[in-house]
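Re: that backbone. Tokens:
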């Protein structure tokens, strides 16, 4: 069968010989251009001629009929232009050409065919080097298949059969090898010569050549001139770049004609450079540039490194004197040989300058040429001094005076006095302390014991001692002398260090312990006493050959042949799953497990300041493999016999192989290969000790033995392993059985321990039992000690005297009671009259409240004018949210100059901004600030707001930072006692940053969805409050949701309709006769300018209210004037009723004049403005007069007959207001808790909290619920509900603010999962919405559930949303001012921040501390720089 057959079971006859299948041998032509329709000839041997065929181009989804020709079939290629097909940007595409048989309808032969599009080759080299029939038209700057329309100068492709120039060698191009490196000094024009080939001559109608330099931040164009076909010159203009780097590689491009790009053999680069940056503003470095890179033409003049043409030859001066900043080391042996590193500035410009110029303590120091760094560093070697001496480091340059260091170098003669210990195993690993004098001499220290190296631990180096660790030797023998090399100078001590035979263990007992360990095991053997700090651990076998090492325990050396070690606990301290390796693949498991064990043993060594050598690791690996192999075989046999399912751990694990860490002796790490030694430790379940069975676990001790009950006590413990304490005194154990412990307690009851840990005889002593590592508190004991009592005669006399005194007191009380009862009857009649009056007042008030409740439950929709919602723009909204309560801030202004200069430089701010863009730095910066005690809560809020201003246009970066900080916060919260409290407060930067992030990201959601409901609620509250009287001084109102702002006065206001003249029309509105003049003006402005935002309305203080038809003509009304009511130090604000304004009065608002006509004549304007400025103050500073409106704020509610009114009877007004506003509160909550239009960031935040809960294994759903409530509702919605003026351009009176606070508190209570018991003593604000909260709580739960069930948000969707929000940034804030403000915190805590950066490995790898030092230098000047060099 042929391979093209779809079904091998079906055959088909072939035409001709049957030993060969039909296939396409060739296609002519082999390729075709998309710009032409070509006839294709397919050579197909043995093709049946009686069938009809068609050519099918599979990848193009197109076919054409095929004709039979002598050698096969022929068809045409598709017309790409007519069919609208294209190769896209590809130069060519290979497709599959198949032949379809009309008889079978199958594609039975196929072959690849290539189409090409010359116009997709964009350069001459690509075009002419292609394998297709393409040609480059130079003056058309394009690649064509058909050159009929081309102008002259055509370069044919290498595959073309046409005569003429062929190949890329004829293409116009710049040769970067011939063209010399192009260096352009900043700010200096320069001529550049470019070399190449075949540069075209320009025709008359074509523009000239031009050079374009792209620095990345700017593009510069330069005129160019064609010298000949191989040379072009560019007249480069002055160019600049802002980056603080010495050389900037900028792209250089050459264009000719109609912006035709002139290609180059490689990327053409122009190197812009700054002399001062290359020299780092150092003279010697600048001079060094003359020697090493003279082509840059940098010279030192006028105190800086500048380009040649910036310097006058007369002003080029020599360098200033060198500066020595640091010298290390500051000591060395008198024999010399110490390599001393000298860091500084202007330390010569070339090696010849300092070759013979360095002296240390008046002895020449030979510099190393290969280690010399011009101007910056000299490394030299001290010479023979011969005696102890001290002196400075001195540099004597030929062109200046000698310079000495402030630090002194000391030539010393170290001395070795003794070593400790003097014995150790020949396996090495012993830590030897070498004692002497001046041991911290020099820079390099090496110790040798005889011929055995001893590795020095430089961290232990002090002037009198140093510690080294012995290495392995091959014979047990003494080694001497003790040698220490100080920079090559040898100091010896003629004393032996004896390498002993490695210790051998011959016996371990007992070999049973409890799971918690702690049983003292006795280990016997030889040479055990030579080990400094022996440790013991165990390998715990697992199913399938798996095992993990336990934590090691420290042993105590008894003598050379005996040590005692507490048994290690069976369960590891760390999570077992982190060290248990499953052996699905045996080799991989063994290798991984052995590596894990070695890693744990390394940790043990690090704690004991020892290390494993490579040879020791190899030996340990071989020994551990034997343990692993034995455990694997044992596991296989157990699995096959018992056919148990494989689990992660065997419960219980009852046997483990012991191992010992004894310096470098690796043979004791695995004792399984020691013949005749039993080293398997059996683990038994922990014993159980029961509490005393008496009440409250208090046992009364009557002098017998103290019996303690338990189970499995003697499985792995004996009498010596048991300790019992009564209080702080021991109880001697006399009996120890599997179920009982008996002991003799102290003869007298010991003192107990109080909560502070102090001894207290009044507290019953605790009984504590300790079995190995297990500690049990079984109860308390109370001694039953009989006492004898005697009744003395003096006591009898005292009792008699007391009885007589008590009798006299009783008689006196009876007399007083008689007199008081008579007086009480008189008071009772008086109180009865007062209670009758009070009952009458309460009855009237309740009737009025009931009437209000029935009549005021109206829909306010008719009063809410659809005047459009006055949203703040995004810029104003951002400022109000980030800086609440402020109207001015530094970010609203450009940086201010002080004493003619800026406080911080622009360059420093740019560097600081770049540093903030590094995630690791910004995270470390925030964490460092959080850890400072002087970093206040206000500072935290300010930092979070400044960060949002700086990265307002890059919220994706803020999100990344916020996520990292939230991970830290979750970890800290979970580790605490109350994880629910996370995000409850705003005491950290991350919490404030989360609030700001949500506020900015949800602005669009507010404007499009929730804002309308919030605005309707605000308007409804304002209209409802203004229906009744509002105290202008205290802010209390009759209609309120807040009990604190409830007007508790019985006031009956009268409604007035005023006719207000506004332009040419008269507008009517309703006011109350108890309104002050200012309140009346406010209502008039609200009515006249209801369609205008509040900030664009006229100011009330600039307007005056005039009664047009007053009793004596036009009358100006004011809150205070000389006719105001004054009595007993109180002055009442004037109201409409005070002026006797009648219903239907005509009013007008006028701009203030200099004088005003009042009821009592004319007043001076200045006096009235003074009074207006004091309103609404409660006290007049001139005469100590207090001001009131509806109620005197410190007055009791006293009414008829002197009876004090009960203020609680007015609480029904709260219910009336709540019923009126209920609809708008419901609408707001439903809109906020609607999951149908949730922004992506809410889903992103909630999913993150869910993931963190799963990550930390938090199964309590209330914790995650509380996190979500504390994040979105508490941090955003409650803030917006309480402060709608953040979102809208409105006025928020005090009473409206109080009502909105109640709504916000209700929303918070709805998010809480805890049930609050409410009663008559509960706050009225909670009682008001008690029944509604149940319904709201269900909405919250449904909201969270629906968000959790929605599909996850992809990272791309989140990035798109954040990018959209970032684009809303208006750029009206001054980022430089925000950076200056933020840098003040970095400057304040610079030392702490530098320490944190140096301690962080990742930050250290990126040299963050050094970069911060550069920032501080640039910001605060060279003096600050010196501190950070």
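Recovered sequence:
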């Amino acid at each position: 069968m042929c391979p093209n057959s779809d079904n091998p079971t079906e055959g088909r006859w072939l035409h001709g010989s049957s030993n060969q299948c039909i296939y396409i041998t060739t296609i002519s032509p082999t390729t075709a251009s998309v710009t032409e329709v070509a006839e294709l000839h397919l050579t197909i041997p043995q093709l049946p001629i009686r069938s009809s065929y068609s050519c099918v181009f599979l990848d193009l989804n197109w076919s054409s009929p095929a004709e039979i020709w002598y050698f096969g079939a022929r068809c045409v290629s598709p017309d790409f232009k007519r069919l609208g097909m294209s190769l896209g940007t590809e130069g060519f595409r290979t497709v599959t050409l198949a032949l379809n048989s009309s008889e079978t309808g199958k594609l039975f032969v196929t072959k690849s065919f290539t189409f090409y599009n010359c116009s997709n080759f964009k350069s001459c080299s690509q075009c002419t080097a292609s394998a297709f029939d393409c040609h480059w038209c130079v003056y058309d700057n394009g690649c064509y298949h058909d050159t009929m329309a081309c102008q002259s100068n055509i370069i044919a492709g290498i595959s073309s059969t046409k005569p003429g120039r062929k190949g890329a060698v004829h293409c116009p191009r710049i040769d970067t090898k011939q063209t010399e490196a192009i260096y352009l000094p900043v700010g200096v024009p320069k001529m550049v010569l470019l070399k190449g080939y075949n540069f075209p001559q320009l025709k008359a109608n074509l523009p000239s050549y031009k050079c374009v330099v792209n620095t990345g931040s700017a593009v510069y164009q330069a005129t160019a001139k064609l010298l000949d076909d191989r040379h072009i010159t560019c007249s480069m203009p002055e160019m600049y770049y802002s980056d603080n780097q010495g050389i900037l590689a900028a792209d250089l491009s050459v264009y000719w004609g109609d912006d035709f790009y002139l290609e180059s053999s490689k990327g053409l680069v122009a190197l812009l450079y700054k002399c001062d940056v290359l020299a780092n503003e150092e003279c010697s470095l600048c001079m060094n540039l003359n020697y090493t890179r003279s082509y840059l033409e940098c010279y030192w003049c006028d105190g800086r490194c500048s380009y040649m043409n910036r310097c006058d030859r007369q002003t080029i001066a020599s360098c200033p004197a060198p500066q020595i900043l640091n010298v290390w080391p500051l000591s060395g042996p008198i024999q010399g040989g110490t390599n001393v590193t000298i860091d500084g500035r202007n330390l010569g410009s070339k090696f010849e300058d300092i070759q013979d110029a360095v002296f240390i303590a008046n002895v020449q120091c030979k510099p190393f040429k290969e280690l010399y760094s011009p101007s910056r560093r000299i490394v030299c070697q001290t010479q023979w001094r011969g005696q102890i001496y001290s002196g400075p480091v001195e540099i004597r340059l030929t062109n200046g005076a000698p310079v000495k260091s402030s630090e002194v170098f000391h030539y010393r003669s170290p001395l070795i006095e003794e070593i400790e210990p003097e014995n150790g195993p020949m396996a090495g690993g012993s830590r030897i302390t070498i004692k002497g004098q001046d041991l911290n001499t020099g820079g390099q220290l090496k110790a040798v014991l005889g011929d055995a190296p001893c590795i020095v631990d430089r961290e232990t180096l002090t002037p009198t001692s140093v510690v080294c660790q012995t290495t392995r030797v091959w014979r047990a023998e003494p080694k001497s002398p003790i040698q220490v090399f100080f920079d090559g100078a040898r100091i010896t001590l003629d004393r032996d260090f004896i390498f002993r035979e490695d210790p051998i263990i011959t016996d371990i007992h007992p070999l049973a312990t409890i799971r918690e360990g702690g049983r003292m095991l006795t280990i016997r053997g030889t040479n055990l006493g030579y080990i400094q700090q022996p440790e013991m651990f165990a390998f715990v076998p697992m199913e399938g050959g798996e095992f993990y090492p336990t934590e090691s325990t420290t042993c105590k050396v008894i003598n050379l042949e005996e040590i005692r070690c507490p048994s290690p606990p069976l369960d590891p301290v760390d999570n077992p799953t982190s060290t248990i390796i499953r052996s699905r693949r045996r080799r991989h498991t063994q290798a991984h497990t052995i590596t894990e064990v070695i890693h744990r043993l390394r940790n043990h060594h690090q704690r004991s300041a020892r290390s494993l050598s490579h040879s020791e690791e190899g030996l340990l690996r071989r020994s551990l493999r034997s343990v692993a192999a034995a455990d694997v075989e044992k596991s296989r046999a157990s699995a096959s016999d018992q056919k148990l399912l494989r689990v992660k751990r065997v419960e219980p694990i009852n046997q483990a192989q012991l191992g010992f860490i004894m310096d470098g002796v690796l043979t004791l790490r695995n004792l399984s290969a020691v013949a005749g030694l039993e080293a398997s430790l059996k683990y038994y379940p922990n014993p159980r000790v029961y509490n005393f069975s008496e009440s409250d676990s208090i046992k009364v001790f009557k002098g017998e033995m103290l019996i303690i009950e338990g189970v499995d006590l003697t499985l792995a413990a004996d009498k010596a392993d048991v300790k019992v304490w009564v209080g702080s005194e021991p109880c001697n154990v006399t009996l120890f059985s599997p179920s009982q412990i008996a002991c003799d307690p102290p003869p007298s009851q010991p003192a107990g321990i109080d909560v502070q840990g102090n001894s207290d005889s009044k507290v019953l002593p605790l009984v504590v039992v300790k079995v190995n590592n297990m500690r049990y508190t079984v109860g308390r004991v109370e001694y039953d000690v009989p006492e004898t009592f005697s009744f003395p005669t003096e006591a009898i006399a005292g009792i008699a005297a007391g009885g007589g005194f008590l009798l006299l007191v009783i008689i006196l009380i009876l007399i007083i009671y008689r007199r008081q009862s008579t007086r009480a009857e008189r008071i009772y009649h008086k109180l009865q009259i007062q209670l009758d009056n009070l009952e009458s007042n309460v009855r009237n008030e309740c009737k009025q409240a009931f009437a209000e409740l029935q009549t005021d439950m109206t829909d306010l929709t008719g009063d809410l004018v659809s005047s459009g919602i006055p949203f703040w723009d995004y810029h104003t909204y951002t400022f109000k949210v980030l800086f609440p309560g402020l109207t001015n801030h530094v970010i609203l202004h450009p940086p201010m100059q002080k004493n003619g200069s800026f406080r911080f430089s622009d360059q420093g701010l740019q560097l600081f901004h770049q540093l903030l863009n590094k995630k690791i730095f910004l995270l470390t910066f925030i964490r460092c600030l959080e850890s400072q005690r002087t970093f206040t809560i206000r500072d935290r809020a300010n930092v979070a707001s400044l960060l949002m201003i700086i990265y307002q246009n890059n919220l994706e970066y803020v999100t990344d930072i916020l996520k990292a900080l939230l991970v830290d916060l979750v970890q800290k919260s979970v580790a605490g006692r109350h994880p629910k409290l996370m995000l409850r407060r705003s005491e950290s930067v991350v919490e404030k940053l989360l609030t700001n992030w949500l506020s900015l990201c949800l602005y669009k959601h507010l404007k499009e969805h929730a804002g309308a409901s919030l605005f309707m609620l605000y308007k409804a509250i304002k209209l409802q409050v203004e229906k009744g009287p509002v105290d202008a001084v205290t802010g209390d109102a009759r209609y309120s949701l807040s009990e604190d702002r409830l007007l508790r006065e019985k006031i009956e206001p009268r409604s007035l309709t005023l006719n207000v003249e506004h332009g040419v029309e008269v507008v009517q509105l309703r006011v109350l006769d108890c309104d002050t003049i200012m309140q009346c003006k406010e209502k008039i402005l609200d009515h006249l300018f209801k369609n205008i935002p509040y900030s664009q309305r006229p100011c009330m203080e600039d307007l005056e209210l005039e009664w047009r038809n007053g009793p004596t003509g036009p009358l100006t009304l004011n809150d205070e004037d000389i006719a105001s009511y004054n009595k007993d130090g109180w002055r009442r604000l004037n109201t409409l009723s005070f002026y006797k304004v009648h219903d239907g009065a005509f009013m007008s608002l006028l701009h203030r004049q200099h004088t005003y006509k009042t009821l009592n004549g004319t007043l001076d304007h200045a006096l009235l403005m003074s009074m207006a400025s004091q309103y609404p103050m409660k006290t007049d500073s001139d005469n100590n007069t207090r001001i009131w409106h509806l109620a005197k704020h410190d007055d009791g509610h006293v009414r008829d007959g002197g009876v004090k009114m009960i203020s609680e009877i007015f609480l029904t007004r709260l219910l009336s207001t709540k019923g009126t506003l209920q609809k708008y509160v419901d609408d707001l909550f439903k809109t906020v808790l609607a999951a149908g239009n949730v922004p992506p960031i809410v889903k992103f935040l909630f999913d993150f909290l869910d993931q963190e809960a799963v990550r930390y294994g938090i199964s309590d759903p209330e914790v995650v619920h509380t996190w979500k409530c504390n994040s979105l509702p508490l941090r955003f919605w409650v803030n917006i509900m309480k402060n709608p003026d953040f979102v809208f351009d409105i006025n928020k009176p005090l009473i409206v603010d109080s009502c909105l606070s109640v709504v916000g508190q209700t929303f918070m209570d709805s998010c809480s999962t805890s049930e609050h018991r409410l009663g008559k003593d509960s706050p009225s604000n909670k009682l008001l919405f008690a029944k509604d909260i149940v319904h709201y709580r269900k909405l919250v739960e449904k909201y969270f559930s629906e968000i959790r069930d929605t599909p996850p948000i992809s990272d791309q969707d989140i990035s798109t949303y954040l990018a959209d929000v970032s684009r809303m940034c208006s750029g009206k804030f001054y980022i430089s001012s925000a950076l200056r403000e933020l840098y003040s915190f970095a400057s304040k805590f610079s030392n702490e921040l530098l320490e944190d950066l140096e301690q962080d490995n990742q930050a250290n790898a990126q040299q963050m501390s050094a970069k911060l030092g550069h920032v501080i230098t640039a910001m605060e000047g060279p003096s600050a720089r010196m501190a950070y060099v």
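The two ends are 83 Å apart (CA to CA). The chain has 30 helices and 75 strands.
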